[in-house]
């Protein structure tokens, strides 16, 4: 009976991982498969689908748009996040809970509602759909995530560090740059990263608000209808996967370094 | 006496409706080791932070070194603080931490370096200069916090429970070190603590606080020997209380009927000014003695031992006196050859009227 | 107050104002190409009485609840395994392993399920290769099963995380105490571990439930003719059907229903949270 | 891509064979944005999407015009304007101005995998209701084609004369067919995928499907001569109001499309007809028959402009049907 | 003597390479209050958890009540545990917590109810039955944990530092309550603590542990009065050590040369069995006296006061003896009229050879 311990779990978890990884594993498989039909049996090895990517200009445009949107979104939502997190963890102000609740609301609103409401405003006010409107939507949905991450960073910050700095004769402004900012830096990096990735992959709002210029997911959506485009999409997906894992590992490396600098026991890991 | 370095008068602090400090009048003398002692929540930290400039009193005035501190922000006051959590900047080395305040003053590099290494050796951390501050033990962090504050040569060093995060051994060691350091630098120390032993062993003078008010300010000996109230007496060490009724006052003495002990005449020096309202006498457990066979005392009373607590060096006896329900505690030193009694034994308890205090 | 204001103003402008406009729009009516701005409850009447909308709403709720339940059930043992059977140093790595497949395009992942479940997809191919079936199975794609499966796959890591966190927070000495007091493995799970991890379960429930009801991509890609959900209908009204007011009314109604369901979960959470803390 | 011209088109129409001359002239294809169905395009444009050119079919033009989306064509800048099918271009003359450059036309017909169906049944639209094909049929996600099917199945061959009762009957028939539907396809590529894999064996499809699939060696054929008949449609390019660019390139694009080479290409590769009547005549009846565009004996429901109110009803009803109601 | 309730012999516990317990031989008697005392990390908890069944010893045998516990899981052992954190189920009320173990045994409802309310009143929590457990103070949680374990009438109650989370006042109160409870129920208590005062005041017997080994098992008086080694002596209370050299052993006595004190003859009862290797004598600070004027003692020595720690009831003096660098600590009770000396004063220190212990 002692063998029964964890036996069930090992099998369950193994099966679960098959389920979990099923789509992701297929990406590289078909990306390197020498056939324009995405199905088994495999035909042979090729890198031509990556070459196709290289020569697809519409894709490059979409990637550029998406990167622009994601970077802008990351910067602004982190900025808004820093302000809100600092305000909510450090200061008391009237109706704090309701205000914070309201700001966090997009986190618990179905994305279609956000898409719909932004679309309505844009139509009613006669604005034009553009990348700018997508950025606005993305900032709106990313800010709560940034606040969540940054709040914990600010909350972990011992308030007496700030007071110590002032006590030692520093001004408030310098205190922010010399003490608070370096210590919440890992949180800021994490926030930038999260906002960047959410924005980069966001489809529902982007599609609702898409103007002339497609984002990467909107482009992918358009391409999904063409069977002959699928293998190169697989190549694209493979690249995205490799890219984001590298980015994550890099971020985790910085996080660990940050932790080491502040001497906090490394317990968490990603998220 | 020289001018007090810190003068508070009529200081109030309100948090909303809650009065955290009320009518604080206090003078702290230049160069003394002063402690604020009181139970949790009595307002010690609030008072200390008001002096440092992190809280603004709701009323009253605060002068440091003769200058009003109205509107003077924390970073402009001649005080420095050692925080309970030490607040060591985790992203800086020991030396960077210590240099922090000097850099804020934009002193020349060479001078900063010199003063930093001086301060570091003052607290015994030579060779730790470039150690990352998270790789320090509790006691070492404590020292960094001290060095970081002292390097600025403040007029007053404020310490908020600086030892409470340390374990017992380390705490005792740091207590004598702190005391020694204070004597060496001659700076006025204001220490917040809720540990009466800490306050008694370290301070020149102590202010005992309850509920936002100062109950008594005195030297350790005075505080222990002549607490101004039952509450202070009980907070500073153990004290037995017996009901008492004042019968008459005449010149230098007062007549009292004391539960179990009968009618006594006490010198007025053993009573608070104006004896009205006094309803009990207090006696410290070590002022009572369980008399060994053949031993005598000024006064004696028969008692029954109800509980025995053996502490190795001491034994605490709870004894029941005639006409008193709650037992009285007697502490005895376990000297060689003295027999430890057991619960249920009868004992003669020796006492002396000079060790009784009439209390409100 | 000054600090929070930029964020607040942005959210007010980008969320509150738009939501109010959606609300206003939902009381107007659209006929062909013109928008009638007089107040009317027509759209709500349609949204709440027309069988199609009722049915779609019910179907969406059903699918979402089903997905939520399936996701949480799938996630719990995994979270439990990581929390209780993995050495502390490895836990972060396991959590990372769980998130890896999600760092590629969301659309692509859904699409790959089409490849897996498709007529000549991986599942059918393997089953036929093994000789288990003769004809490709067609009930695994283009229906509600496929929607449920795909959504569950998309959201399962988001369910594992809160449950894992809740399990990590369960004081191990409580479980030892339960053992010490005489409970065997199963009973101490049921009496201590499970109730104490409920806040995580409920958080997972909310995290999965809300976005699944707002998704119109998954039903579109793998749902087939009978797998569409209310979000597809909202999208349709705003786009093809050219009836934004009705779309707005549907969106507001859906939001109201989601809010109600979520409040029930939050309330349950409160009930459980009252315990610890 | 050339961002001096934005084309909002059906997906698939970015095929460079259609506008070789434009590429030769400008070195690059125009910027494309795609729609799967006209109502989607209409809404996208109404929502503010800015393109220079788009590609509606005959029934939509007046709706687009009413919505203020269109500008008249400057026919003097279309070199081969005189070669344009006269009947088609005159149908879109409003207040003396032309709004549509008719360009492509084709048929919608019963299309099937010859290797996977009972050929005997392929002579009637009733196969769509046949339980034997449950889960194996695909219908277009396109309101005009779908109602063309519905009306034909009920014996209505001219939808401009359809009554409410006809509309109800067509809807009922489509509801029944819905039970058998595996997928509603939005464009040829999607249908090609469905039929190529054998997942779908019978479809109501545009003539491009048998043409392109046969090209890939797949046994797909269409029967335009089913008992109930088949449908025909024509579409063309419009000049969008509010286009982001000057119109020079737009007319270059139109002229490239009007080139006889394009006509040949669309007929041979796509199985569609072309709006250049002269070029079409040059291909000859045999060529057309070979492409599957020859005349048929059975009724043909032409997807011509119709009563807009009825069409709105069709749009709404079709959505219900697709949702299962 | 009756059979021991717990018998450990040759118990080892290894965590990887690290030997947390080594060769533990221990008998715990039925009905006694037994404590495991030692510094942090010495293996107390490991030992207790091995008894409870939460750790499996790497070697050796464990019998409870005469039965081998090999392979018996924790939920089948006749022991119950009070956890350091109390491990009160936060999602259950007080009564549900107490009923937990009874429900696990599937007792009838009525009996459960009865025993629960009995246990609740035993620990003085009447009326708290339906209180949510998070709304309890530390002391109250402690009581719930006790009631929850005691209601099962275990043969042995295991307590892992049950008082360390309480504040000082509460801790002292719970100490006497625990002791009283143990006497009342008669169950064997095994208490883990690192607080020597706690062990001394509460236990019938104490096992002192260092580094995974048992150093001494004895009653509190024996442990304090006759520690088996310098390390034990220093751990249990304060002890002054003077260098010593054994000169000769003869019959019942031993001759020793002691630093500062000179040649002494001590009875063998004041030395460990076999005096070889003894290099110091120990004396407790309370066995030394600062002699007042006119006061005498069996032996006297001149000393200089180097530090004074005033504790109210006591004063600790660090005094420097001739020929010794490290100061010696003398503790004095502050009785009425006794003058407190200051640093720098000279003093006569009184002592007696009977209070010296020869130690290894
Ligand atoms: N910012 C605040 N807002 C409201 N009440 C406060 C605030 N700061 C302190 N208090 C209250 O004022 C009282 C005094 O607090 P203070 O921190 O000075 O106590 P303390 O004596 O230092 O106690 P401790 O020993 O626990 O640190 C407490 O009751 C506390 O709850
Ligand atoms: N699971 C484990 N793995 C490895 N080492 C362990 C484990 N549990 C305990 N130890 C080590 O065994 C030694 C004894 O631990 P134990 O908890 O018994 O000490 P303790 O005497 O109870 O100390 P404390 O008073 O701090 O609770 C310690 O050095 C500890 O680090
Ligand atoms: N290629 C587009 C055909 C549209 C038919 N209605
Ligand atoms: Mg405080
Ligand atoms: Mg322990």
From TrEMBL, chain A:
Residues 63-251 form the ABC transmembrane type-1 domain. This is Putrescine ABC transport system permease protein PotI. Belongs to the binding-protein-dependent transport system permease family. CysTW subfamily. The gene is potI. The chain crosses the membrane at residues 12-32, 67-87, 99-123, 129-155, 176-197, 233-251. Its main location: membrane. InterPro entries: Bact_Polyamine_Transport (IPR051789), MetI-like (IPR000515), MetI-like_sf (IPR035906). Keywords: Cell membrane, Membrane, Transmembrane, Transmembrane helix, Transport. One of its GO terms (cellular component) is plasma membrane. It is found in: Cell membrane. One of its GO terms (biological process) is transmembrane transport. Signal peptide: none annotated.
TrEMBL record, chains B, E:
The keyword Membrane applies. Pfam families: ABC_tran (PF00005), TOBE_2 (PF08402). SUPFAM superfamilies: MOP-like, P-loop containing nucleoside triphosphate hydrolases. It comes from the Bacteria. InterPro entries: AAA+_ATPase, ABC_SmlMolc_Importer, ABC_transporter-like_ATP-bd, ABC_transporter-like_CS, Mo/tungstate-bd_C_term_dom, NA-bd_OB-fold, P-loop_NTPase, PotA-like. One of its GO terms (molecular function) is ATP hydrolysis activity. SMART domains: AAA (SM00382). It catalyses: ATP + H2O + polyamine-[polyamine-binding protein]Side 1 = ADP + phosphate + polyamineSide 2 + [polyamine-binding protein]Side 1. It is an enzyme of class 7 (translocase). Residues 6-236 form the ABC transporter domain. GO terms for biological process: putrescine transport. GO terms for cellular component: ATP-binding cassette (ABC) transporter complex. PROSITE patterns: ABC_TRANSPORTER_1 (PS00211), ABC_TRANSPORTER_2 (PS50893). Its EC number is 7.6.2.11. The complex is composed of two ATP-binding proteins (PotA), two transmembrane proteins (PotB and PotC) and a solute-binding protein (PotD). Belongs to the ABC transporter superfamily. Spermidine/putrescine importer (TC 3.A.1.11.1) family. This is Spermidine/putrescine import ATP-binding protein PotA.
TrEMBL record, chain C:
Belongs to the binding-protein-dependent transport system permease family. CysTW subfamily. This is Putrescine ABC transport system permease protein PotB. It is a multi-pass membrane protein. It is found in: Cell membrane. It comes from Planktomarina temperata RCA23. Pfam families: BPD_transp_1 (PF00528). The keyword Transmembrane applies. Keywords: Cell membrane, Membrane, Transmembrane, Transmembrane helix, Transport. Residues 57-267 form the ABC transmembrane type-1 domain. PANTHER family: INNER MEMBRANE ABC TRANSPORTER PERMEASE PROTEIN YDCU-RELATED, INNER MEMBRANE ABC TRANSPORTER PERMEASE PROTEIN YDCU-RELATED-RELATED. InterPro entries: MetI-like, MetI-like_sf. The chain crosses the membrane at residues 7-28, 61-82, 94-116, 146-167, 188-210, 246-268. GO terms for biological process: transmembrane transport. One of its GO terms (cellular component) is plasma membrane.
């Amino acid at each position: 009976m002692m063998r029964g311990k964890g036996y069930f779990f090992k099998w369950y978890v193994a099966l679960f991982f098959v389920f979990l990884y099923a789509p992701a594993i297929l990406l590289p498989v078909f990306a390197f498969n020498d056939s324009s039909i995405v199905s088994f049996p495999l035909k042979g090895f090729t890198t031509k689908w990556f070459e196709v990517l290289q020569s697809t200009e519409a894709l490059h445009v979409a990637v550029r748009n998406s990167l622009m949107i994601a970077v802008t979104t990351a910067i602004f939502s982190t900025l808004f996040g820093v302000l809100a997190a600092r305000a909510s963890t450090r200061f008391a102000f009237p109706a704090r809970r309701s205000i914070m609740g309201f700001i966090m609301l997009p986190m618990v609103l179905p994305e279609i509602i956000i898409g719909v409401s932004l679309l309505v405003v844009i139509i009613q006010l006669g604005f034009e759909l553009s990348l700018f409107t997508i950025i606005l939507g993305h900032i709106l949905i990313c800010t709560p995530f940034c606040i969540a991450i940054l709040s914990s960073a600010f909350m972990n910050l011992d308030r007496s560090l700030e007071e110590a700095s002032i006590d030692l004769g520093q001004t408030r402004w310098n205190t922010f740059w010399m003490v608070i900012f370096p210590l919440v830096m890992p949180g800021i990096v994490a926030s930038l990263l999260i906002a960047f990735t959410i924005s980069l992959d966001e489809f529902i709002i982007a599609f609702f608000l898409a103007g002339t210029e497609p984002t990467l997911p909107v482009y992918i959506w358009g391409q999904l209808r063409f069977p002959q485009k699928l293998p190169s999409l697989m190549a694209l997906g493979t690249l995205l996967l490799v890219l984001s894992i590298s980015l994550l590992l890099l971020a985790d490396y910085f996080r660990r370094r940050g932790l080491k600098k502040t001497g906090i026991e490394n317990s968490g890991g990603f998220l | 006496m020289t001018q007090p370095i810190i003068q508070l008068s009529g200081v109030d602090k309100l948090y909303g409706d809650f009065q955290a400090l009320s009518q604080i009048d206090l003078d702290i003398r230049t160069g003394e080791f002063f402690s604020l002692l009181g139970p949790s929540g009595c307002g010690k930290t609030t008072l200390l932070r008001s002096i440092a400039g992190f809280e603004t009193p709701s009323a009253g005035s605060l002068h440091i070194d003769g200058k009003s501190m109205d509107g003077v922000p924390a970073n402009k006051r001649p005080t420095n603080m050692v925080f309970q959590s030490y607040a060591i900047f985790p992203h800086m080395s020991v030396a960077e931490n210590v240099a922090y305040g000097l850099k804020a003053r934009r002193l020349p590099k060479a001078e900063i370096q010199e003063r930093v290494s001086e301060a570091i050796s003052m607290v015994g951390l030579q060779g730790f200069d470039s150690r990352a501050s998270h790789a320090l033990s509790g006691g070492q962090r404590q020292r960094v916090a001290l060095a970081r504050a002292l390097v600025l040569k403040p007029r007053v060093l404020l310490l908020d429970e600086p030892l409470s995060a340390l374990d017992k051994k380390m705490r005792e060691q740091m207590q004598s070190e702190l005391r020694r350091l204070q004597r060496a630098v001659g700076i006025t120390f204001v220490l917040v603590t809720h540990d009466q032993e800490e306050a008694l062993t370290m301070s020149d003078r102590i202010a005992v606080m309850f509920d936002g008010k100062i109950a008594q300010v005195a030297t350790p000996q005075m505080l222990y020997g002549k607490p101004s109230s039952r509450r202070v007496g009980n907070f500073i060490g153990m004290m037995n209380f017996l009901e008492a009724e004042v019968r008459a006052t005449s010149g230098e003495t007062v007549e009292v009927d004391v539960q179990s002990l009968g009618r006594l005449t006490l010198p007025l020096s053993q009573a608070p000014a104006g004896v009205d309202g006094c309803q009990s006498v207090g006696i410290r457990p070590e002022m009572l003695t369980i008399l060994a066979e053949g031993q005598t005392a000024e006064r004696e009373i028969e008692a029954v031992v109800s509980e025995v607590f053996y502490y190795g060096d001491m034994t605490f006896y709870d004894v029941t006196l005639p006409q008193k329900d709650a037992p009285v505690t007697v502490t005895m030193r376990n000297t060689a050859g003295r027999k430890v009694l057991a619960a249920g034994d009868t004992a003669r308890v020796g006492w002396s009227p000079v060790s009784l205090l009439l209390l409100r | 107050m000054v600090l929070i204001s930029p964020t607040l103003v942005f959210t007010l402008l980008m969320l509150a104002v738009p939501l109010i406009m959606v609300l206003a729009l939902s009381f107007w009516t659209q006929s062909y190409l013109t928008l009638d701005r007089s107040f009317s409850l027509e759209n709500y009447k349609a949204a709440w009485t027309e069988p199609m909308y009722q049915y779609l709403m019910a179907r969406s709720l059903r699918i979402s609840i089903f997905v939520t339940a399936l996701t949480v059930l799938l996630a719990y043992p995994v979270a439990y395994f990581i929390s209780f059977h993995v050495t502390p140093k490895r836990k972060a790595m396991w959590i990372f392993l769980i998130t890896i497949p999600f760092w590629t395009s969301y659309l692509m992942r859904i699409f790959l399920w089409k490849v897996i479940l498709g007529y000549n997809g991986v599942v059918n191919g393997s089953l036929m290769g093994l000789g288990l079936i003769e004809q490709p199975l067609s009930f695994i794609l283009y229906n509600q099963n496929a929607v449920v499966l795909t959504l569950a796959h998309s959201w399962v890591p988001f369910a594992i995380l809160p449950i894992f966190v809740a399990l990590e927070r369960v004081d191990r000495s409580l479980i030892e105490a339960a053992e010490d007091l005489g409970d065997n493995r199963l009973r101490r799970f049921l009496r201590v571990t499970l109730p104490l991890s409920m806040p995580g379960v409920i958080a997972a429930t909310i995290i999965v439930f809300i976005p699944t009801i707002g998704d119109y991509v998954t039903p579109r890609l793998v749902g087939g003719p009978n797998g569409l959900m209310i979000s597809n209908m909202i999208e349709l009204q705003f786009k093809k059907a050219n009836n934004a007011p009705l779309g707005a009314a549907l969106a507001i109604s859906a939001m109201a229903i989601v809010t109600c369901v979520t409040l029930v979960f939050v309330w349950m959470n409160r009930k459980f949270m009252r315990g610890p803390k | 891509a050339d961002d001096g011209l934005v084309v909002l088109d059906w997906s698939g129409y970015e095929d460079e064979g259609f506008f070789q001359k434009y590429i030769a002239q400008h070195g690059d294809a125009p910027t494309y944005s795609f729609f799967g169905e006209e109502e989607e395009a209409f809404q996208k444009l109404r929502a503010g999407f800015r393109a220079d050119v788009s590609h509606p079919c005959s029934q939509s033009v007046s709706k687009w015009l009413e919505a203020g989306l269109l500008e008249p064509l400057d026919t003097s800048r279309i070199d081969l304007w005189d070669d344009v099918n006269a009947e088609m271009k005159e149908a879109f003359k409003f207040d003396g101005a032309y709004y549509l450059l008719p360009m492509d036309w084709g048929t919608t017909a019963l299309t099937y995998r010859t290797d996977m169906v009972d050929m005997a049944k392929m002579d009637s639209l009733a196969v769509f209701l046949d339980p034997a094909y449950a889960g194996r049929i695909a219908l277009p996600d396109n309101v005009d084609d779908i109602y063309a099917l519905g009306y034909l199945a009920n014996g209505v061959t001219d939808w401009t004369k359809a009554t409410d009762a006809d509309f109800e009957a067509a809807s009922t028939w489509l509801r029944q067919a819905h039970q058998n539907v595996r997928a509603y396809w939005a464009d040829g590529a999607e249908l090609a995928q469905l039929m190529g894999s054998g997942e779908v064996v019978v479809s109501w499809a545009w003539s491009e499907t048998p043409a392109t699939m046969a090209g890939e060696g797949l046994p797909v054929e269409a029967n335009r001569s089913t008992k109930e008949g088949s449908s025909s449609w024509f579409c063309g390019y419009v000049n969008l109001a509010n286009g982001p660019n000057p119109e020079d390139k737009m007319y270059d694009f139109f002229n490239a499309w009007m080139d006889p080479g394009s006509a040949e290409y669309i007929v041979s590769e796509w199985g569609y007809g072309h709006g250049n009547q002269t070029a079409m005549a040059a291909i000859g009846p045999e060529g057309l028959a070979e492409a599957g565009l020859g005349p048929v004996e059975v009724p043909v429901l032409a997807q011509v402009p119709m009563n807009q109110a009825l069409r709105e009803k069709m749009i709404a009803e079709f959505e219900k049907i697709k949702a299962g109601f």
